[in-house]
Design brief:
Blueprint: E1 5-7, E2 22-24, E3 28-35, H1 50-67, E4 75-82, H2 88-96, E5 106-111, E6 122-130
Length: 132
């Protein structure tokens, strides 16, 4: 695990409410591709259910991080791509199950017109830094 420094409100920047503005670390950089709500057999989990999809996406992120020797403690940035901003409470709840409020990474949330298939409600990517 990398020692991360978090700056929630740099001088002159409004305080963040559900993310950290700046997260810094030293070590190996890990990029996790956008994860979808697919189980290990490639089947959709939670059709039409943002909470079920968010739970599966965060489980997939956890497994990808583990494959790189990382955990959610190493995540410095999350990007949420959602087909409707109304899905963000479900995303935040799933994130809260994995990342405590005092360790929030930098984050961006973007509403998109579509994802790779219409049944997907969200895709989430992660960047992490693992200690040397």
């Amino acid at each position: 695990m990398s020692e991360l420094t978090r700056i929630p409100a740099p001088d002159g920047v409004a305080p963040a409410t559900a993310y950290t503005h700046v997260v810094m670390g030293t070590g190996r950089f890990v990029a996790i591709s956008g994860q979808l709500a697919l189980d290990e057999d490639g089947k959709l989990v939670g059709e039409g259910d943002p909470a079920a999809q968010a739970h599966q996406v965060f489980e997939n992120l956890r497994r990808c991080l583990a494959a790189a020797g990382a955990t959610f403690d190493d995540v410095v940035k999350l990007t949420f791509f959602v087909t409707d901003m109304a899905h963000m409470p479900a995303v935040r709840a799933a994130r809260a199950a994995h990342i405590p409020d005092d360790r929030l990474p930098a984050a961006s949330a973007v509403q998109v017109a579509a994802l790779v298939r219409p049944e997907f409600l969200m895709e989430i990517e992660a960047f992490a830094v693992i200690g040397e």
